[in-house]
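hi! just following up on the protien thing from before. the input was this:
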Amino acid sequence: MIHPSFATARALVLVALLGSSATSEAQSTDTGADIKAADSWSSDLKAPLRPADNVGGSWNWTLLYGRMTDTALNKVVRFSYGWDEAKLLSGEIGYTLKEDNPLVRFLDPVLSSVDVAMNITYQDDPAGDIFLFSPYIMARWSNFPWSNTLRTTFGLGGGLSYATDIPSIEIRPDNPDGNYRRLQHYIAVEATFALPKYKDWQLVYRLHHRSGVFGLFQSDNGGNTAVQIGLRRYFK
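and the predicted 3d structure came back as:
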């Protein structure tokens, strides 16, 4: 039995995303038909194909290699950036929440799936070797019309990132003795691609970003973004 508050929140999301469809369906006076229509909207918005069959409850490992950029994240997203000296090698383990998880149910049908992951990155920094430990949660969308030909997902994740030393790129030239902190916010923006025949193997394009979130972490660290390419494997 769905809790009333849960049902109300879910209904508001449906109304916001499906205004025209909701208006049309509201003309129906058959309660059973309304419930069936809501379930249909959910199925239509959810990805027709997932990163793996029955992806909920699946584990995955990912290997990524990339290089730091010298550009702000908003420009990197637009593929406008240059390169910095530091290189990164990342490994992570992730778990996709099951569809009956309360968080997944609440976000249904806005998201296709929700992952929790732990990322460990080695950074070949000019100042020396640095390791980054980044636990995060990622929301994923995969309802794209071309997925029958090329299975595609888009993910946006957020969490924390702890560095064993302050990365050189985070130290501001005009404030070398500032209040720099090892713990920062972590953002992962990624797109994945897989062939339907090999749906459990994904090519991953990842933006790896650390920042203090406009002073939220009360540090002087400058934000930094790396571009990475890698491979992900799903398994039960």
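The chain has two domains: 4-45, 59-235.
The longest strand covers residues 83-96.
cheers
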